Input
Amino acid sequence: MTQYFNEYASLCFERFGDRVKHWITFSNPWSVAVEGYETGEHAPGYRLRGTGAYKAAHHIIKAHAKVWHTYNKQWRSKQRGMVGISLTSDWGEPVDMNSQKDIEAAERYMQFYLGWFANTLYNGDYPEVMKDYVGRKSAQQGLAVSRLPTFSSQEKSYIKGTCDFLGLGHFTTRYITKRNYPATQGPTYFTDRDLLELVDPSWPDPESKWLYSVPWGFRRLLNFVKTQYGNPIVYVTENGVSEKMQCPQLCDEWRIKYLKGYTNEMLKDPLASHMEMVTEIVVPTVCTLCILLSAVLLMFLLRKQS
Output
C-alpha cells in the first residue's frame, strides 16, 4: 500500500504540481486508524482492537515519509512546493494541576493522540510513553512483543523531518485524570492509555455532543505544538462547530461566538514570546530602576548627613 500511495502521489505531483504548492498527504490519520481499524465506526469498518489502529498508523506514517522523499528528490527543485500532513487533536487538560498523576495522564493523552504521528514525523519515532504503556500492557497480556509496531533504525532516519508544515485540526478539549485499566480487560487503544476523559458541565455544548466550546484549549494546543516540535509552520486545517438549533431564519450566533473565541486564542501572542519579554526586557528594566532608586536614595542620605 505504501508503494501504491507513492505512485498515486507522484501522479498528482506530475499533473498538478505547477499550480499546487502545498500538499497534505493525509487528513486526520488518527481517525483513519482508530475509527477505521479499532472501533469500526468509519471505513473500512474493522474492529481489530488493540492492534488494527497501530498497524494502520504505522503504514500511514511510512507512506507519508515515502511521498515526502519522492517530492523532495524529484519535484521540489522544479515546483518549489511543500509537503505536510494534517493532524487533528483535542487538548487534554489535567483535572487537578496539583496532581502529578493527572499531569502525567494529560501528557499521555496528548502523546497517544497528537504525538503518535507528530513525534514520529518530527523526531523519528513514537513517543516514549506510548511505547512504554503499550509494551507493558502487551507483556501483561502474555504477548512476546508489543502490539505497537517498531521502526528500524534506517526507517527512523528516513521518517524523521519529513514534514515541511503541520496542518492542525482542533475542535474541543477534555479534562484528563488517571485511571488504571486491568490488562485482563482486553487490549484496546483506549485502555492502553490508562486515563479517563471528562468534560466540564459549564462548557457550552453544541448539536454534536462530543464537541464542547473551550477556546482556551486551542491556545494551549498551539503552545504544545510549538515547544514539542521545534516551532513548525502551522496551518489550521480544521475548526468549526455544528448548529445548536434549527431555525427558518438566519440565526448563527452560536457558531459566530465559537469561531470568534477560537480565532482570538489563535491570534494571541505566543506564551514563549511573553516569557522572552519578561526575561529580556522586564527583568533588566526592573533591575536598572532598582539600581537608580538605590543610587538616588544613597545620594539623599549622604546630603542629609553633610
